[in-house]
Amino acid sequence: MSNHHTNSGISPVSGTKRHIFLDTLRGFALLGVCLANYPEFSLYTFQTDAVLAAMPTAAADQIVKFLQYLFIDGKFYTLFSLLFGIGFSIIISHAAERGADGFRIFYRRMFILALIGCTHLMLLWSGDILLLYAVLGMLLPLFRNMSDRKILTVAVILLLLPILIDGICEAAGIFLAQFPYNKWWEYADMYGITEANFGTWLRDAQDYGAVHQFLMQGAWERLYEFIDGNRYFKVMGLFLIGFVVGRHKIYADLSAHRHLLNEVMRWGLCIGLPLSVIYAISGVNGHYWGNTIHTVLYTLSVYPLGFAYAAILGLICIRHSNWSVWKWFAYPGRMALTNYISQSLIGIWLFYGIGLGLGASLGLGDTELVALGVFLFQILFSKLWLHFFRFGPLEWIWRMLTYGKWLTLLK
Hints:
Blueprint: E1 3-6, E2 9-12, H1 20-41, H2 49-54, H3 58-71, H4 75-98, H5 100-123, H6 130-137, H7 148-172, H8 178-191, H9 201-204, H10 208-228, H11 231-247, H12 258-284, H13 291-319, H14 325-334, H15 336-351, H16 364-388, H17 393-403
């Protein structure tokens, strides 16, 4: 989110100065994130193969799982990470105009996002990404005076690094995430969470205390996932690509960059789509070509297809800029932080024992239908909220803490 200079000092960007395409893309990314995350909320991901095979929807779920690997897995957090990098470039251009003041605000903004992410991780959901975004975001000012070529070179190296790391680890039998993995099961043992009850613990939780126990071991599991998946290199690489996109304000004049969007779409689909099919085969069959090959397939399918999604959306936007669908995606996109956190709150209410307790009972297809319903609800809620208010509720709090002053919420 950018900010602009007013006589009263430094303030966040007004609604009129926002770029609807960025909000639309953010809304689209939120839909994908909901589809990607809800199989964990519904506890489907935590079920054993035997339980999944016994579900009445088992055959259909296998198809859905394949399609999820093909079109969803990794693609939308790619978009989210790109958008974060773009947002950062907007902030940094304003910060540069103001000198040290702008950077002080940027670091305060990242620190508050880290606190929000930490709260989300420890109190609501182990799958949080905000904490990692905030910590890595603090490194971005280091790149602000680099040329585009240098930044993109660093980005490509960071995106390819996981292949090298996984290759070395697989060949040498090294397990980098041993420490958090041990801690994860140490905490699980402490609370009586076992392989046998892992998939039903949250559904059977009768109070928040039991949910919190699961979150405590889940925080270690998250750290294990970050290290095992080399997630920090991936995210930082995507941030830097987004930063270059933002530098050239491609989002502000899509028509002027039509040729670039066409190239990204063409190459992204030609490379990303066929390799995503092979990646999906590897994914549904438990990486049977080995971890390194799976990482190669991830790298060569997820990023190109994710970039292609953004380019396709941009090209459709150029041709049909008056479609009302853009506004419907832009509503939740303008309140991305609120909607990201509220997806967790709704997930807890729907699937955990302290809510409706639907967890571990839905197949993958049904879970994705629920996720779709949740996003539709978020569109309507966001539209209604923004009719009366200037910012989403969490955006409002985040901005006030960032700028250290009271901001009017009501329109």
